[in-house]
Amino acid sequence: MDVLGIDIGGSGIKGAPVDTDNGRLLCERLRIDTPQPSTPDAVIETVRELLAHFAWRGPVGCTMPAIVKAGVTRSAANIDDGWVDFPVEQSLRARTGCPLLVSNDADAAGIAEMTFGAGKDHQGLVLILTLGTGIGSSLFYRGVLVPNSELGHVEIRGREAEKWTANVVRKRKKLKWKEWGSRLDYYLAHLEFLFSPDLIILGGGVSRRFARFSPYLTLETQVVPAALRNDAGMIGAALAARSLVDD
Ligand code: BGC
Asked: b/e map of 215-231 (b: 16 or more CB within 10 Å)?
């Protein structure tokens, strides 16, 4: 079944129709810069642009870089404060006229990796982290998601992990791979201690450069790069929204 997957991030909003039977994009994705300020109204307008571009009227899966509980965004770490307690699902449904489901972006990326990517068929405890503007996390045990885990906000050396280890910090501070890799290692070692995962999957655009920083990771847990890279959010959003039609 085909579902339009939309991945809303702090810097870009990407969309593509996804064949949810195999996780493939049906055509080239479209990326539009996230409007600034990234108010709900402006972002919803961009989502409408994406729908118009693909002339889409079918089911839509959408991510948000925020806690999403019962269709309401409950936080706004890297987006406009207007998203706190915003009824995103209801508003997007009303303004697009499409059946639509909203998931946390890292949960969506995790769903995609567990279904078609680096965690496919894994039955243990799998931790997926997306390293981008912030750090997103998703946790799976025996293939079942524990949603909204928000592990980018655990405290590391007196500050939020994402403020110290996100990929955007590496770029902004021009950190060498060794320095950033060691920070990441420290953070991952803390998560390894807390959760004893069987597998850690690292996603986000920087997963493409895995070979550059993996030499600095000293964990016992197996750590692998995400297989679906930056498409994971769109694919997972579409997979999550399949239930709208399946049910
Ligand atoms: C947000 C998460 C999100 C992550 C990645 C964090 O700042 O709190 O909800 O998954 O960034 O976008």
From this structure: ebbeeebebbbbbbbbb
Q: What distance in angstroms lies between residue 150's CA and the mean position of ligand 1's atoms?
A: 7
Please write the tens of the pLDDT for every residue from 125-142.
999 999 998 999 999 999
pLDDT score of 246 more than 80: no
On the CB side of 227, CA atoms within 13 Å amount to: 14
42-90 pLDDT, tens digit each: 999 999 999 999 999 999 999 999 999 999 999 999 999 999 999 999 9
Instruction: Identify which of 68, 88, 162, 202 to mutate to test ligand 1's pocket (most ligand atoms within 8 A of the CB).
Output: 162
Instruction: Output the six-digit token pair for 232.
Output: 């994971």
User: Where does ligand 1 bind, in terms of residues with CB under 6 Å?
Assistant: 65-67, 75, 77-78, 104-106, 130, 132, 134, 136, 150, 152, 162
Contact (Cβ atoms closer than 8 angstroms) between residue 166 and residue 175: no
Q: What are phi and psi of 72, to 5 degrees?
A: -120, 130
